[in-house]
Amino acid sequence: MRYALISDLHANLPALQAVWGDIAPRDVGASYHLGDLVGYAPWPDETVAMVAAKGIAGIAGNYDSTVATDYKHCGCRYEDPRQEELSHLSYDWTRRHVQPGTKAYLGGLPFRIDLRPNGGHLGGPRVVLVHATPTLNTLYWTEDRPDDFCLTMARHAGMKPGDVIAFGHTHLPWHREVGGMHFLNTGSVGRPKDGDWRAGYVILEVGNGSPKVQFVRVEYDLEAAMRGIRESGLPDELAEYLRTGGRLAAPSSPSDPLNAARESRVP
Ligand SMILES: [Fe+2]
Predict the structure, then answer these.
(1) Ligand 1 centroid vs 10 CA: distance in angstroms?
(2) Cα(264) to centroid of ligand 1, in Å?
(3) Residue 77's CB: how many other CB atoms inside 10 A?
(4) What residues contact 101, with CB distance under 8 A and at least 6 apart?
(5) How far is the CA of 213 from the centre of ligand 1 (A)?
(6) N or C: which end of the chain has fewer CB within 10 A?
(7) pLDDT score for 195
(8) pLDDT bucket at 249, cuts 50 / 70 / 90
């Protein structure tokens, strides 16, 4: 069974459209989102509408559950005081603009989804989908967490060797195997933070044998996304954040779109 896993779309409709265009021709059995459909970009309603229209089931990210419940903040982590300020501005903007139907949709998303690629009548591998961790959708599960952290989370999730848990939240893709279990961060469609501006998602193949993980990056209409942010009343820095792949201090990375345009086709 092959799954497409998309996470942290963050209201970036051009990025979602490009990713969906990339997934469609692939031989994928099902597509799931891992939450954070809204926030930071000006298309929360349109993004949720597209996810619903395409029948992409998924779970509630911290942004989704906080918007849905009118919580006091988005549950995001801040790298510095300016990022904190931008985060609050984005959260206020999103809460003021989402339609009631969008809010209701976000409020109805489950916390977790369990998949049984070989069918629930067999004891084969499981795939657990959460936004951040099996305990909270705000906790950051970074690649440098010790093995013990992964094993504790695996216990919370009820995992056994051969199982996979997939999540997002940090916007940084990685895959580790600990104790025969697979821990997979799918990265971010709409707001990558690894210095690569392109939308990221994962193709996960699970069945008999070891799961196969393919990290995919897709170019999208970045200019349209940046223009949309600038014209929306959201802070301009959010557009620059997208352009630099979350690396505002290093605007000319090798994967900068200006450089990428000079390269031969980016795979
Ligand atoms: Fe997120």
Answers:
(1) 7
(2) 31
(3) 14
(4) none
(5) 21
(6) C
(7) 97
(8) low
